[in-house]
Amino acid sequence: MKNYAILFAMKEEAEALIEELDAKLLEDEFFEIYQKDNIYIAISKVGLINATSCFVYVNQNYKIDIFINAGLVGTFSSELALLEPVVVENSYLGNANATGFGYKLGQIPGMKEFYTSDKELLNSFKGFKRVDICSSDTFINSNEQIDQIVKVLSDSIKVFDMECFGFYQAAHIFKRPLIALKVISDHIDNGSNEIQFNQILSQGSVKISEILLEIIK
Q1: How far is CA 151 from CA 5, 42, 48, 169, in A?
Q2: Is pTM, for the whole model, over 0.85?
Q3: Residue 192 has what pLDDT?
Q4: Contact criterion met (CB below 8 Å) for 159 and 84
Q5: Chain centroid to CA 33: how far?
Q6: Where are the beta strands (DSSP E) in 17-125?
Q7: 3-class SS at 30?
Q8: For the segment 74-85, what is each residue's pLDDT rounded down to a tens digit?
Q9: CB 124 within 8 Å of CB 130
Q10: pLDDT tens digits, one per residue of 25-75
Q11: 102 CB burial (10 A radius; 0-12, 13-18, 19+)
């Protein structure tokens, strides 16, 4: 039986899965980590550095076969609807600029321009739209930020968050299989993204739980 680590930024995003599994808290000194049988749930807290740190901690302290980042994301695409589930194909970084040294915008020196989900895991998440994501430590809530942070990286990007790239770069470094399941929580053209996010948070948590339990079990 394979062990899964489901990585969330916020406990509110993980709440439905924790309740449905009746997962028990293992520890909370550094990160909140819950377990039910072969499923581990880790809460990284918001931000890229927290995401990377959490991945490293879980990878070093637990025997995990498959990592899944799950959570809510914003979009500016008319092709995606609120509460629509998507899976990440490529993950980009939105707050790095070393172009003066010959690197692409968003590329950390000595690292890849973007990271791709594990191919076997991508094939196991059938029936979902595949999207590219941009992650930054800025909560994006305007078209101006979309133009300055997201669209300058790649025309393929459709969604954005504050953690995904941190998980992906850590997975790349440690050569661990990772995929991200995301649910659309807010659209840049629908008013305040913060208000949209808070209004849809509990519904998104339930949607994530339903999908993951169907795929994993």
Answers
A1: 31, 31, 19, 21
A2: yes
A3: 64
A4: no
A5: 17
A6: 24-27, 32-36, 39-43, 66-75, 85-93, 115-116
A7: coil
A8: 999 999 999 999
A9: no
A10: 999 999 999 999 999 999 999 999 999 999 999 999 999 999 999 999 999
A11: exposed
